[in-house]
Amino acid sequence: MVLAAPEGAAKVIATEPLLDSEAVWTKLVKKIYRDPKGITRTWESAERRTRPKASGIDGVGIVAILEKPTESSPVMFNDPGFTNTNLKMVHVSVDMSLPQNQHLEPELEENEFIEVFHVRLVDLWEECIRLEAEGYAIDARIANLAEGIEIAKKFKL
């Protein structure tokens, strides 16, 4: 799907390789890691060059409560200007009382290691805090959902 920009809006007119020496905001890195099976693997990732040395973060998310009608999910970008990854949020209901939903196992690729566990929505924020304290990296989409639930509770939305 190609999204059309409104007339007069900024638009990308070219995409070309960027030399590391020209990069101001990001750098491409190769990470070498050992997976849970003990196999050494590599992964490419982008990193910001702008994170202050004394800080564990390089940005601040601001939550603004705006009152407007609910809309369906548009294409959302994970970190616009940093990567080209995007997604749409999809809501599904799973009846956990059905036998076929009792002991689900993910169908993983060889280099995927995903642990499946269930958390009650009311406990999601506290569980994210607990897991982060244990050293887990919390995906921003999960953290945003958890924070949204906390905001809804606080403001009785």
From TrEMBL:
- Please give the name of this protein: Uncharacterized protein
Sections of the chain in a coiled coil: none
UniProt record, GO biological process: nucleoside phosphate metabolic process; ribose phosphate metabolic process
What keyword terms does UniProt attach to this protein?
Hydrolase
The answer to whether keyword Transcription applies is no
Q: Out of the domains of life, which is the source?
A: Eukaryota
Keyword Hydrolase present in the record's keywords: the answer is yes
| GO MF annotations, alphabetized | ADP-ribose diphosphatase activity
Cellular component per GO, a single term: cytosol
